[in-house]
Amino acid sequence: MAPNARHLAVLARLPAFPVVAARFYKSLEFFRGVQIDTLTRASMGYLAFLKFSIYLVFLVNAGSWPFVWHLRVFWPIIVARLRFLLLRASLLFKSPSERKRIVAESVEALCPVGANPFELVTVYRRWASIDDVDMFGIHLSNSSYAKALDSARLRVMWKAFPAWSVSRGVIALGATHYHFIREIPCFARYEVRISIAAWDQKWVYVVARYVTPPKRRRTDKATANGALTTHNQSPADSDTDISPPSHSSLNGTATSNTNGFISETDKLEKTLTEALAATNKRSRTPIVEPDGSVLHCIAVSQLCFKQGRISVPPALALACEGFCNPPPCPVDPSAEPGSVPIKYSASNPPPHWAKVRDMRVPPTGSMKRFKEFLAGGWKTSAEETGDKWWEEALSGPIEERRKKNLEVLHALRTGMEGVRVLY
């Protein structure tokens, strides 16, 4: 059948369909391009925000980065080792005997000669960062107390026992007991104040007090009410504070007797009693330190001195660092009445210090000989001569104070060991 006029008209329009389709496709491409561009810009904004959030989380948790804990804990040892390396480098052109003598004297200069072990207070300062608070961001997490104590404990061990540390002796941790009293808020600055509380034949007990420094308003108010005992220097004024006899060594208000020692008030027992009473009463009344700081937590660490696999009595380690009783004659006869009592120091050493130096300082001694003495030589010396000079150095008022504090701490240890048989 031949095409009529109608068919010819339809066929004439066929070439126009590709043109229309092409125009329609181009319009679709235009709108789709606009949509893709909009989505690309939005996604780039989301990716930038996500990247910023990741960086922010990474920064606020800087305390948990790999090796940050190790660096924070071992920083005092790292600094001390670097100083000794620099000292040895400066002595390259000295004779070997002269080098050994100078290095030994530099170690002796770090020892707290003449100090009372109960008056040595080391302060470690921290703040409750986001990395340290609990999941709700309200207060310091319980696990962060142990993390801060690791750093604080090594600092007091290095400052109280420098010769022991140089001899490569180990201070092993046997146990730690925490008593949480009051939370530490997020972003708050706090201090860990550590002091030696007591020791027996094997263990030395170290008490750490977590406190927040006083605000000026609270300090002024306490001073006006007569509730605050002011000192010439509080433990917060320096990293290591060997307090004068009239200062407080553990807790509470201290008074001094004629020998310059702490009075009969057992500040350790008083603090523990107040903490337990506050917990039993569920009271929100803060426990205030003598300098106005608020007590938040008490931690008791049980440490053991190890030279190789041999346990060393804490009294021996303390005496070898220079800790001792005051001189028997507290005041210089030639001094005027009311003058300051004489104290033992590096320039006025205690009687037993000559024996320690004979073991450690050339030409008569060396660090190797000192290590041999700590590793068992003290037993042989005591059996042969019967002279336990390390016990005599810490006798008298220090021994009385040790026994009194040890009763409280042994009760804590016995109670925790008794829990083992409950189940």
Question: What secondary-structure arrangement, pairings included, does this model have?
Answer:
Layout: H1 5-13, H2 16-60, H3 68-90, H4 96-110, E1 120-127, H5 142-160, H6 162-166, E2 170-180, E3 189-199, E4 203-212, H7 216-225, E5 240-242, H8 267-280, E6 287-288, E7 294-307, E8 310-312, H9 314-321, H10 353-360, H11 367-385, H12 389-393, H13 397-418
Antiparallel strand pairs: 1-3, 1-5, 2-7, 3-4, 4-7, 6-7, 7-8
Structural commentary:
The structure is a single chain. The protein has 13 helices and eight strands. By secondary structure, it is of the alpha+beta class. Strand 3 (189-199) and strand 4 form a beta hairpin. Helix 3 (68-90) packs parallel to helix 5. It starts with a helix and ends in a 5-residue tail after the last helix.
